[in-house]
Design goal:
A seven-stranded parallel β-sheet has the order 3-2-1-4-5-6-7, sandwiched between helices. It has 256 residues and is of the alpha/beta class. The protein has a single domain, classed as NAD(P)-binding Rossmann-like Domain (Rossmann fold). The model has no long low-confidence stretch (mean pLDDT 94). It is 43% helix and 15% strand.
Length: 256
């Protein structure tokens, strides 16, 4: 088992990628703190999956965009689960259909706080606790191919994911002496509750698949396996890297 005896925090674990990663981590021997914002039923199912794999699930409701909430989350983990070895920044929000000229300030701030500031707040707390025990550890953030591609109509989302790329590169240098690996996973089109609307219209879905050389949407398990790699000892010589998992979408962009 790749994570035997490890303790991990996965934010936004109530569905989709976060839920798949929590289950896979438990199957590989990790106890998992799992957070959610509003979906109590979803996080209960994630906890069930973790416990079915024989590991402990610590459920915490929080808001990653609120630094006080993040601090409270880490305090509770320390008292109820122990010292974390792995941080997976997965919580995020999507947006579309809002051009810059018509942008709502509240929506802009919300997207940037959850998608960009949230991972930063979590990294800050994780770094402090790992340094207190001598360093080492793994940080994995779920980004998006929007980190690399233009996002007309959802500019703040693209900005947030591009910022995650910069955060990863900068932190990988800051934390090299601590031997804390910092990496991203950038999914393409993945079939999750967040993207459900894109799968409701077969014609629109087929148009999206035409841009993907693999000609299929990814599944949460595809991303969970990439996260597991970057969270395990297998990736000890990998840091500052964004692993794109998209069926070739970014290689095809503009060529179809």
């Amino acid at each position: 088992m790749k994570l035997d005896g490890k303790k991990a925090l996965i934010t936004g674990a109530d569905s989709g990628i976060g839920q798949a990663a929590a289950e896979l981590f438990a199957q590989h021997g990790a106890d998992v703190a799992i957070t959610y914002n509003t979906d109590a039923d979803g996080i209960a199912e994630t906890a069930r999956l973790v416990e079915a794999a024989g590991r402990k699930a610590l459920v915490i409701q929080n808001d990653v965009g609120d630094p006080a909430s993040v601090t409270a989350t880490f305090d509770r983990i320390a008292s109820e689960l122990g010292v974390l070895d792995i941080l997976v920044n997965n919580a995020g929000q999507a947006m579309s259909g809002m051009e810059v000229a018509e942008m709502d300030d509240g929506k802009l701030e919300q997207i940037l706080r959850v998608n960009l500031m949230g991972p930063l707040f979590c990294c800050r707390s994780f770094i402090k606790l790992r340094r207190a025990v001598g360093g080492r550890g793994k940080i994995v953030t779920v980004s998006s191919v929007a980190q690399h591609l233009p996002t007309p109509g959802s500019t703040p989302y693209g900005m947030s994911k591009a910022g995650i790329g910069s955060l990863c590169r900068s932190l990988s240098r800051e934390l090299a002496n601590d031997r804390i690996n910092v990496n991203n996973v950038a999914p393409g089109l993945i079939e999750t509750p967040m993207t459900a609307s894109r799968f409701e219209d077969p014609a629109a879905l087929e148009k999206s698949l035409e841009h993907i050389p693999w000609h299929r949407a990814g599944q949460p398990s595809d991303i969970a396996q990439a996260i597991l790699y970057l969270a395990s000892d297998d990736s000890d010589y990998v840091t500052g890297h964004t692993l794109v998992v998209d069926g070739g979408l970014t290689m095809q962009w503009g060529g179809a």
